[in-house]
């Protein structure tokens, strides 16, 4: 692709290839986890395998490993695909109403599948929503509904979501759950307990779905940028600038002890830091 751009068909093809590559790479990495390949690396007593095995596992709490980026990758790439998919369906003659219905059905199906996964192990109905599919149902639908809004509107929406969640964790008034950055003693843990009807549920917060919606909305903006008539050079510059800005924001919040990077409750610093990838 040169600086003057290419014709629409060629451009769309290249973009779809890049999206498919990113998506398939993410799925390939997830296959490795499902086979428990990465856990075996930690059993091999060499510096290299220990390092790789550690990076291919989730951080226990405050911090960030490579594997903590996988869900943000997935949430982001779904957002990138939204404007491309909608445009293609409109070109094929689908009505906006049918596209909306399709999106509602997809969000509902993601929610059901994400919830049902947790029922397999115990062999009974349990109400858990920490799975990426359940959380993606919220993020996908929110990003879809505002996909045609202005860049400013979408950015402000994501920043407001992150601010509201950050403040909610800080000022949640329930005794025993008013320690925002302590495992099992925060708003996310309280919400889990209420949803699941137990006294101590998972350390992974179901309400992460709201914070990580920002990843999917930012993906939509990226997809619209890729579809624009800007030159390839301009697109790359904008993406690099946005990535650096998000990286600085995320790690500044963490290093200045304002909001720590914690994936399991999807803090604002975590969302910013992982969005830069």
Give a written overview of the molecule.
- With 277 residues, the protein is mostly helical.
- The chain has one domain.
- The protein is built from twelve helices and no strands.
- It has helices at residues 8-34, 37-41, 47-55, 70-91, 96-120, 132-145, 151-171, 187-196, 208-211, 213-227, 232-255, 268-275.
- The two termini are 23 Å apart.
Number of helices, where a helix is a run of at least 4 consecutive DSSP H or I residues: 12
**Proportion of residues in helical segments:** 55-70%
Total strand segments: 0
Q: What's the number of structural domains?
A: 1
Which residues sit in consecutive blocks of at least 5 with pLDDT less than 50? 1-15
String of helices and strands? HHHHHHHHHHHH
| Helix-and-strand structural type | mainly alpha
The geometry reads as: globular
Give the mean pLDDT: 89
- N-to-C CA distance: 23 Å
Provide the β-strand percentage band: under 5%
- Radius of gyration, in angstroms, nearest whole number: 20 Å
Major sheet: size, sense and barrel closure? none
Topology record:
Layout: H1 8-34, H2 37-41, H3 47-55, H4 70-91, H5 96-120, H6 132-145, H7 151-171, H8 187-196, H9 208-211, H10 213-227, H11 232-255, H12 268-275
Helix pairs in contact: 1-4, 4-6, 4-10, 5-6, 6-10, 7-10, 11-12
């Amino acid at each position: 692709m040169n600086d003057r751009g290419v014709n629409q068909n060629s451009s769309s093809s290249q973009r779809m290839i890049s999206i498919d590559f990113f998506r398939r790479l993410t799925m390939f990495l997830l296959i490795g986890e499902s086979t428990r390949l990465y856990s075996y690396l930690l059993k091999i007593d060499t510096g290299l395998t220990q390092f790789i095995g550690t990076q291919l596992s989730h951080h226990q709490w405050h911090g960030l490993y490579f594997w903590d980026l996988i869900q943000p990758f997935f949430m982001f790439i779904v957002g990138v695909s939204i404007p491309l998919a909608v445009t293609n369906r409109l070109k094929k003659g689908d009505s906006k109403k049918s596209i909306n219905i399709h999106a509602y059905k997809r969000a509902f199906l993601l929610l059901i599948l994400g919830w049902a996964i947790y029922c397999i192990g115990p062999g009974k109905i349990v109400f858990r929503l920490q799975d990426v599919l359940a959380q993606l149902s919220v993020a996908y639908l929110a990003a879809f509904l505002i996909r045609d809004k202005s860049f400013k509107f979408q950015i402000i929406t994501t920043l407001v979501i992150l601010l509201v969640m950050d403040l909610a964790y800080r000022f949640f008034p329930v005794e025993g759950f008013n320690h925002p950055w302590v495992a099992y003693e925060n708003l996310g843990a309280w919400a889990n307990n209420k949803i699941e009807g137990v006294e101590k549920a998972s350390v992974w917060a179901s309400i992460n779905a709201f914070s990580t919606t920002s990843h999917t909305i930012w993906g939509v903006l990226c997809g619209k940028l890729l579809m624009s008539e800007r030159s390839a050079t301009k697109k790359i510059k904008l993406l690099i600038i946005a990535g650096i800005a998000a990286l600085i924001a995320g790690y500044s919040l963490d290093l200045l002890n304002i909001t720590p990077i914690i994936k399991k409750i999807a803090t604002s610093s975590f969302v910013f830091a992982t969005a830069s990838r």
